[in-house]
From TrEMBL:
E.C. number: 3.4.25.1
Organism, scientific name: Streptomyces humicola
GO terms, molecular function: hydrolase activity
Regulation: The formation of the proteasomal ATPase ARC-20S proteasome complex, likely via the docking of the C-termini of ARC into the intersubunit pockets in the alpha-rings, may trigger opening of the gate for substrate entry. Interconversion between the open-gate and close-gate conformations leads to a dynamic regulation of the 20S proteasome proteolysis activity.
Pathway the protein contributes to: Protein degradation; proteasomal Pup-dependent pathway
Signal peptide location: none
Name of the featured protein: Proteasome subunit beta
Residues that make up the propeptide removed upon maturation: 1-53
Cellular compartment(s): Cytoplasm
Family annotation (Gene3D superfamilies): Glutamine Phosphoribosylpyrophosphate, subunit 1, domain 1
Family recorded in the similarity comment: Belongs to the peptidase T1B family.
Domain of life per record: Bacteria
Recorded GO CC terms: proteasome complex
Length: 281
């Protein structure tokens, strides 16, 4: 389906026919082979080493939500990339953190961004946060064939709900099953350790600054016990990506802001390597 207008000066009929506000539906009807989930993989024998993104964490606070990720991508026991980006804005009021097969995950995020932009242009309105979460669920489900072959994508979705006036977090499984998380969430290879840190330190009255520190603490704990999760790399100046979403929209912390939090956490860890302690009672 090309948009070649050199001969007639008109767009193909597909572009002028009324239909769904979903770009995926449009592509599936007119050029289904372009959708990632419709690709046919060549037969392979044995394990295929492909870069994987790892730990993503999120935590809500009064007024918004924080979504953050480490910077390491692994390929088996090898560090494939030390400074990969795993957290992306989906639109002005939401963001996606990716875990799983890195190449497919980044491609899915780009398609999701286009899906939301297409809806807004067709409908003249922003899709609700619930609707965004459902659209992402459909995209993950369309990748099920690849997931069953080991190429899974398991993102974490977070955003500010303009209707409910609060931050919300959604997690997914490889089949596209969606669950709303309350308070905090984690996904990826280091998620067990990150979730443990969040569980002990999280409170629902944390400030924005405290919440950004909390997610960095959780990523630090994940890197402490999971070799696929990268901690703050002071020598190379590689720090976690930390984003904040409020009623003012999406904002990514600058490198100076991220480094200040990471260095403060690191300095405290020199005195207390296992991190801050939660009260017993």
């Amino acid at each position: 389906m090309g948009a070649n207008i050199s001969s007639t000066g008109r767009l193909p009929a597909a572009f002028l026919t009324p239909g769904s506000s979903s770009f995926m539906d449009f592509l599936g009807e007119h050029s289904p082979e372009l959708l990632p989930g419709n690709r046919t993989l060549p037969p392979v024998q044995g394990a295929v080493e492909i870069p994987h993104g790892t730990t993503i964490v999120a935590a809500a606070f009064p007024g918004g939500v924080v979504l953050a990720g480490d910077r390491r991508a692994t390929m088996g026991n090898i560090i494939a990339q030390r400074d990969i980006e795993k957290v992306f804005p989906a639109d002005e009021y939401s963001a996606v953190g990716i875990a799983g097969t890195a190449g497919l995950a980044v491609e899915m995020v780009k398609l999701f961004q286009l899906e939301l932009e297409h809806y807004e242009k067709i409908e003249g309105d922003v899709l609700s946060l619930e609707g965004k979460a459902n659209r992402l669920s459909t995209m993950i489900r369309s990748n099920l064939g690849m997931a069953l072959q080991g190429l899974a994508v398991v993102p974490l979705f977070a955003g500010y709900d303009l209707d409910r006036e609060k931050g919300r977090i959604f997690s997914y499984d490889v089949t596209g099953g969606r669950s709303e998380e309350h308070g905090f969430a984690a996904t990826g290879s280091g998620s067990v350790f990150a979730r443990g840190a969040l569980k002990k330190l999280y409170r629902d009255d944390l400030t924005e600054q405290q919440t950004t520190t909390l997610v960095v603490q959780a990523l630090y704990d994940a890197a402490d016990d999971d070799s696929a999760t990268g901690g703050p790399d002071m020598a190379r100046r590689i720090y976690p990506i930390v984003t904040v979403i409020t009623d003012e929209g999406f904002r990514r912390l600058t490198e100076a802001e991220s480094s200040e939090i990471a260095r403060a956490v690191h300095e405290r860890r020199l005195e207390q390597p296992d991190g801050p302690r939660a009260a017993i009672l």
